[in-house]
Amino acid sequence: MKTFVFAFLTGAMSLLFISCATQSVYLQRLHTGGPQVTPPLFVTNGNTVDEFRLAPRVLLNDKKWLVGRAAGHSKVNANGVYQLDTINSNGTIRYVEREGVNKYEFSGRNFSWEPTRFGISLDADYQATRFVSLVFGANYSSGLSHTFLGANGGVAFSFEAKSTAVRIDIGAHWSSVLYDAEYAVATKPFSFGVRETDVVFFHETGKSSFWNAYGAFTFNTKAASWPLQFFTQLAINRQTLVDLDRRGVTAEGTSVVVGSVSFFIVTPGVYFDLSPTSRLLLGLQLRDETELLEADPGVLLAPFVQFEFRF
Predict the structure, then answer these.
(1) Per-residue b/e over 183-193, b at no fewer than 16 CB within 10 Å?
(2) Confidence check: pLDDT of 250 > 50
(3) Entry pTM
(4) Mind listing the pLDDT tens digit for each residue in 99-123?
(5) What is the pLDDT of residues 258-292, one digit of tens each?
(6) With the C-alpha atoms ordered 141, 153, 307, 157, is the resulting torsion angle positive or negative?
(7) Do residues 262 and 28 lie in contact, with contact meaning Cβ atoms separated by under 8 Å?
(8) Cβ of 139: how many Cβ atoms within 10 Å?
(9) d(Cα 67, Cα 43) in Å, to the nearest integer?
């Protein structure tokens, strides 16, 4: 009887320790390709209630990749490598991490983004009241042997003085990117004497689409005697790239791998009227990625040309 009780307790404790295994998910590498979305841009100059504006825009990329270090990589050994032992057990391959081998923070590059080279967008602005307008639009970009479609919608609040004006935009955009992600699921049994962790690697590719929020503040001049007017837009824009749900190697449930970036965008430029119902905007977008631990180049440049037609 004592032997049975001992065996039962031993089995119960073993199941308890196994069920309490700890699991970690490491984003080892993420390569993406697609458009880097920017918020709509409208200047404020003599807006009237029920006015409808259309703004087609052409955006050219400076052909530079965004390369950096995304959070979530596993720790590495002294040589900067995620060191594992490969065990072949009757034809079954296991990867095992020994305790104390990987104890340094990863300092390399595990993120890259190849932007599309060309993009066009069409945004619309409806002045619903004196201070409030509704914004919506669509965009198209090409490159990487693929085409990408996007959309946006939001609300704007504008205020005019004699020679200056400000506008605040709040909204959301829908965008798509290609992704190629490698990540690892590491499972460490909660058991006495066990000093190793089982690691399983996953590699997934595909195309993902997400909604994300944006916010923008635009200042512009509107002095009647000036041949050229000036504007500057400050914007914050988040863009989710990949969100992978993957069942882990224990009974804990679903492991989630999320990759996203956030841009702080400064857009200075000039505009002038072509006719009483149309104007031209010329500007340069400076995009600074703020979520990566390190990024190169520090600032991405993209010149653009935008027309605006009022109805």
Answers:
(1) bbbbbbbeeee
(2) no
(3) 0.82
(4) 889 999 999 999 999 888 888 999 9
(5) 788 899 999 999 999 999 999 999 999 999 988 88
(6) negative
(7) no
(8) 23
(9) 33
Q: Give, in order, the Cα–Cα distances in Å from 218 to each of 30, 196, 199.
A: 33, 55, 49
Task: State the amino acid at position 13 in one-letter form.
Answer: M
SS3 per residue for the chain: CHHHHHHHHHHHHHHHHHHCCEEEEEEEEEEEEECCCCCCCCCCCCCCCCCEEEEEEEEECCCCCEEEECCCCCCECCCCCCCCEEEEECCEEEEEEECCCCCECCCCCCEEEEECCEEEEEEEEEECCCCEEEEEEEEEEEECCEEEEEEEEEEEEEEECCCEEEEEEEEEEEEEEEEEEEEEEEEECCCCCCCEEEEEEEEEEEEEEEEEEEEEEEEEECCCCCCCEEEEEEEEEEEEEEEEEEECCCCCCEEEEEEEEEEEEEEEEEEEEEECCEEEEEEEEEEEECCCCEEECCCEEEEEEEEEEEC
State phi, psi for 60 to the nearest 5 degrees. -110, 135
Residue type at 185? V
Dihedral sign computed on CA atoms, order 104, 297, 38, 116: negative
CA distance 287 to 153: 21
Best CA proximity match to 123, nearest among 43, 232, 62, 235 = 43
Are 248 and 185 spatial neighbours (Cβ–Cβ below 8 Å)? yes
Class at the top of the CATH hierarchy for domain 37-68+111-179+207-310: mainly beta
State residue 221 phi and psi, 5-degree precision. -90, 160
